[in-house]
UniProtKB/TrEMBL annotation:
<dbReference type="InterPro" id="IPR027417">
    <property type="entry name" value="P-loop_NTPase"/>
</dbReference>
<dbReference type="InterPro" id="IPR002586">
    <property type="entry name" value="CobQ/CobB/MinD/ParA_Nub-bd_dom"/>
</dbReference>
<feature type="domain" description="CobQ/CobB/MinD/ParA nucleotide binding">
    <location>
        <begin position="6"/>
        <end position="183"/>
    </location>
</feature>
<dbReference type="InterPro" id="IPR050678">
    <property type="entry name" value="DNA_Partitioning_ATPase"/>
</dbReference>
<dbReference type="Pfam" id="PF01656">
    <property type="entry name" value="CbiA"/>
</dbReference>
<protein>
    <recommendedName>
        <fullName>CobQ/CobB/MinD/ParA nucleotide binding domain-containing protein</fullName>
    </recommendedName>
</protein>
């Protein structure tokens, strides 16, 4: 995974983008992978968490919300096993820059029809925003209720549309908000709990994607 870049991108606010980015960063930090978490969102949601008591467990955080962020990541990536980039929740040059430097892209999608429509806009940006670049991306269902009709329907709709999804999901759990009160994630507050397990499963799938991409490009 050395020097890999994972960009978390969505053109819709409230999809769970910052939660996913911070949770993955903390998970990999606890695994000893020395991740770098880049806050490229002008809203500074990630940076605000670092200002709270637990400061995301000591994860290295770099704040840069401008279109030159790709160059900074390029310079920093060799010093970290993995870099996670939290992008703005809207179409911007910053998002395009973060996509251009990514090895894989994860697109959080809240389990609702409106969010699915906006996710398709994100995919169009992925495919057209960076010429000559074929992204490896996966959609990640977030805020799902296990076994619910809407969660099953949204997954089926995405699969029928040909959109690749991770098998794992971020289920709707209060543990994320509770941990955020202290600038933490479930992996720090309750490492054996269900939310921490959800993140571990997502991280495992991301690891596999990165390994596959590196093997193909070797």
């Amino acid at each position: 995974m050395s020097g890999s870049v994972v960009t978390i991108a969505s053109l819709k606010g409230g999809s769970g983008k910052t939660t996913l980015a911070t949770c993955l960063a903390v998970h990999w930090h606890l695994k000893g992978l020395n991740p770098l978490l880049v806050d490229a969102d002008p809203q500074r949601s990630t940076s605000r968490l670092v200002e709270r008591d637990q400061a995301l467990g000591g994860v290295n955080v770099l704040e840069q919300a401008d279109k030159d962020v790709w160059n900074t990541i390029k310079q920093q990536r060799s010093s970290h096993s993995i870099t996670i980039v939290d992008t703005p929740g809207f179409d911007s040059d910053i998002t395009i820059a973060a996509l251009a430097i990514a090895d894989i892209v994860l697109i959080p999608v809240k389990a609702s029809p409106l969010d699915v429509d906006r996710m398709m806009d994100t995919v169009r940006t992925l495919m057209s925003g960076v010429k000559g670049w074929a992204p490896t991306f996966r959609c990640v269902l977030t805020q799902t209720v296990k076994g619910s009709v809407i969660s099953r329907h949204v997954r089926s709709e995405l699969e029928d549309g040909g959109f690749p999804l991770l098998t794992s999901e971020m289920h709707n759990r209060v543990a994320y908000a509770e941990a955020g009160l202290f600038g933490a994630t479930p992996s720090l507050i309750a490492p054996e709990g269900p939310a921490a397990r959800d993140i571990a499963h997502i991280a495992d799938e991301a690891d596999a994607l990165i390994s596959t991409k590196k093997a193909l490009s070797a």
